[in-house]
Amino acid sequence: MEKFNASIAYDRHLWEVDVQGSKAYSRGLEKAGLLTKAEMDQILHGLDKVAEEWAQGTFKLNSNDEDIHTANERRLKELIGATAGKLHTGRSRNDQVL
Fold this sequence. Notes:
Blueprint: H1 2-5, H2 8-11, H3 15-31, H4 37-56, H5 68-80, H6 93-96
Helix pairs in contact: 3-4, 4-5
């Protein structure tokens, strides 16, 4: 069933807009006082690294990545640790569906 629901094969091409959306969202969280500037900067730097990997063709998908959102979130957490989880604050997966 997980393979049936996975859309990563199709939406992997959306990596750039997903990263841009996450960057904008992190800026909004900082502006709302839900992230410190240091946390936002850490997230933005991590997202830059995620984008760099996609652009260079070195991003490695995981068999558990359902879609572009979970793939990018997983990699961000690998890069920056627990702070990555704060990016999901107040965010619904439905907000990210195109």
